[in-house]
Amino acid sequence: MTDAAPAVRAAGAAEPEEVEGVEAVGGLWADGWAQLRRRPLFWVSSALIVVLLLMALFPSLFTSVDPRAADLSLSGADPSPDAIFGRDLQGRDIYARAIHGAAPTLTVGLLASLGTVVVGAIAGLVAGFRSGWSDGLISRIAEIFAGLPFILGGIVILTTFNRPGQIVGEVRIVTQVVLTIVVLSWPLAMRIMRAAALEATQQDYVKAARALGAGPWRIVTRHILPNTLAPVLVFATIQFGVFIGAEAALSFLGIGLRDPVVSWGVMISEAQERVADIPQSLFFPAAFLVVAVLAFVMLGDAVRDAFDPRGR
């Protein structure tokens, strides 16, 4: 009975630390959300993103014109009531194509962000929590991928799977572009998660959980993961906009999405040869692309400022 008393007292002393750690996480998220709601940048970027999402999910709310309907007799026509943004080289309505181009572009950005965060977060958690040889191995692998230039890596990967001029299905090419972005971008997410996990493992509530006999899975899911989500959330939000631009860059080079897929990057790629004659075919999809990238980057900045107490 005497020997068990210190253990009982130690356990009782450790439990408040564990609860305190969980409550601190809840307090951080609540405080961050309160800070976020007071930032005009958050509401402006959110409003733009809502409009973009409506365009992607319900394009019929904005136009009833078929984006693939071509009329060569109207090739390069100037803006008019029938086509407010004018027509491209094939006589297609640029406004309708810009509206319908939101879905593939945002889909690539969303899937690439999710894939990058999932792969990078898992690798970073393992590296930061396990440390030792696991940390060294994962870090060296990440350094190899981080050393690959994005454009060069994208050209090598996508041209390896698709020969020039090869007809590729829409789902297949979207999948290939998403996987290419994930392969070339996950090391940064891994580094962010690894640094956050290393910091979290040194906190008292994690040490208390270990002293109470909690297993690795419980420690990671209940204590480490909630405390490391904020920086990864900020990264994912900003990278969403970056990946939208990456899709456009790959499509512009002719190795990303391609016709018959309608995306802003594809529209810009198709307009490059006749931009002097039909400037509207380049200007309007580029404007949509810039607005989308800025919206997600602004949202990421607002989230970062709200959920990073050290930056206030």
TrEMBL record:
Bilayer topology reads: Multi-pass membrane protein
Q: Which UniProt keywords apply?
A: Cell membrane, Membrane, Transmembrane, Transmembrane helix, Transport
Tell whether Transmembrane is among the UniProt keywords: yes
Q: Which residues cross the membrane?
A: 41-62, 110-129, 141-161, 173-189, 232-257, 282-303
Note the superkingdom of the native organism.
Bacteria
Residue runs in coiled coils: none
Ranges for domain ABC transmembrane type-1 come to 102-300
Q: SUPFAM superfamilies per the record?
A: MetI-like (SSF161098)
Q: One matching Pfam family, short form?
A: BPD_transp_1
UniProt lists the family membership as follows: Belongs to the binding-protein-dependent transport system permease family.
Q: What is this protein called?
A: ABC transporter permease
Question: Species name for this entry?
Answer: Actinomycetospora chlora
